[in-house]
Structures are given as structure tokens and as C-alpha cells.
Amino acid sequence: MSRLLQILSWLAGLLGFGLLVAGVAQLNVPAAFIVAGVGLLAWSLLADRAAAAIKTKGG
Q: Does the keyword Transmembrane apply (predicted)?
């Protein structure tokens, strides 16, 4: 059940990010690109920290 919750959480975050960028795009398209870029940079930072926190097995 924990795996399903992780997937649903990831999908909710992805949908929320998409809706945020779409909402900003309705106001100003260049601002939407900036919001998308900042969001992707933050996502890559979180993914990098999560990957570094995973302990490798047997090594």
C-alpha cells in the first residue's frame, strides 16, 4: 500500500505543477517558462538529495 501512496503522491505533485504552469501561462507565457524552469530545478535538487540518501546494498 505504501508503494501505491507514493505513486499517487507523485502524480498529484505532477498534476499540481502542470496546473500551476498552465495558470501562469494564461497570464504571461514567459513567466510560465520561468516558473517551469524553477520548478524543474527544485525537482532535480530533491531527486539528487533523495538519490544520495539511498544506501547501496552490499557495497
A: yes
